[in-house]
Design a protein that fits this description.
The protein is α+β, with helices and mostly antiparallel strands and about 350 residues long. Helices cover about 70% and strands about 10% of the residues.
Length: about 350
């Protein structure tokens, strides 16, 4: 009996028997699976000026591939599976069905559940069109479509979240820069006010220009009076009242000129306009720089705020999931012949190895 069993196992009949079993399983036992497919892309709301390829025709930017790769990994992740379980109880859609893969896995174990879910999701990125194809299979067409619809909805949330997260980080950074610029502007304004109050002067630069103009006017008067004095000296005695009066007027003007000059320049920097004008000019330059920095920071913050509030990227659905009318699995003829071919190949390798061993034994 034992020899007959061994002879049967080592004969080709075992291949035929296993193929017959697989035929019975695929034709009469295996639960049919239906597939629902969606084709999608990611579109940025920012303006694209790239006209060197077909990508702008369908509204996709160069960053779309990167976004779709992120999306592909997200769809395959346990996070997506958790959402599917919470929203539509995906586990109940697979449990209790006749599927040889289910016999090998326990859906109550996270790792097994994730692997089985991934085996029922097929995601393909097309480099030519820049689109992502997501196919979902389940044991009835309604479940397959429901899973695909939920994946599309969560995909859009995912794309919006990652784009808004970047925008929010940029807005927070712009807000910090705006607060720094505002503080810097307030400090320099306070410093200028203290400078003006301590020197009892609104604008030393304007004051210096005024003093310089007064000095010039006095100098012009002195020159005119000296010319007039020279004319009087040509025909009057130096002791005449007219000459003495003019000399006194010239001396008074020169005395006033010295006072005005002392106000403008001096080695003592504490109360002289030239030093005050330089200090005030430095403060004015700092104020202008702080105002420009504040304007730039404010513009950057407003731009970031608008970007954060609007929809930066969106998932575009090229083809929506539909209710499948034909089961894609099992494909009885294909599956049975595949099993037969694989078993024949294994049987041939074993027989070949066994014959080599037998030859070397004798």
């Amino acid at each position: 009996m034992k020899k007959r069993i061994i002879k049967f196992i080592t004969s080709f009949k075992i291949i035929l028997l296993l193929s017959l079993i697989s035929l019975i399983y695929f034709a009469f036992l295996a639960s049919p699976r239906y597939e629902s497919t969606a084709i999608l892309g990611v579109k940025s709301t920012s303006t694209s000026t790239d006209t060197s390829s077909l990508i702008p025709i369908i509204g996709l930017t160069s960053s779309s591939k990167e976004d779709l790769m992120y999306l592909k990994e997200y769809i395959n992740s346990y996070d997506m599976l958790t959402i599917l379980q919470k929203d539509i109880d995906i586990k109940s859609m697979y449990e209790g069905k006749i599927d040889y893969e289910l016999l090998l896995k326990d859906l109550d174990i996270k790792e097994d559940f994730l692997k089985y879910y991934q085996s029922r999701i097929k995601i393909v990125y097309d480099d030519l069109t820049g689109l992502l194809s997501v196919s979902v299979s389940a044991f009835n067409p309604e479940d397959a479509k429901k899973i695909a619809d939920t994946i599309l909805k969560e995909s859009e949330n995912f794309i919006n979240e990652i784009s808004h997260k970047i925008a929010r980080e940029q807005m927070n950074f712009a807000k910090e820069e705006l607060e720094k610029a505002n503080l810097e502007l307030s400090n320099i304004q306070k410093e200028i006010n203290e400078f003006q109050n301590s020197n009892s002067m609104l604008d030393p630069i304007t004051q210096a220009k005024t003093q310089s103009a007064i000095k010039t006017q006095i100098e012009e008067k002195i020159i005119a009076k000296e010319v007039e004095l020279a004319t009087l000296n040509s025909y009057l005695n130096a002791n005449t009242p007219q000459v003495k009066a003019l000399k006194s007027e010239i001396n008074a003007l020169k005395s006033q000129l010295k006072k005005e000059s002392d106000k403008l320049t001096s080695k003592d920097k504490n109360d002289k306009l030239n030093y005050l004008a330089i200090d005030f000019s430095n403060l004015s330059f700092k104020l202008k720089f702080a105002e420009d920095a504040y304007k730039l920071a404010l513009a950057s913050y407003e731009k970031s705020r608008l970007e954060a509030n609007k929809k930066l990227k969106q998932v575009i659905i090229i083809s929506s999931p539909i209710l499948s009318e034909i089961a894609v699995y099992p494909n009885v003829i294909y599956d049975v012949f595949s099993v037969f071919f694989i078993l024949t190949l294994i049987f041939g390798i074993i027989k070949f190895t066994y014959s080599i061993v037998e030859e070397h034994r004798y």
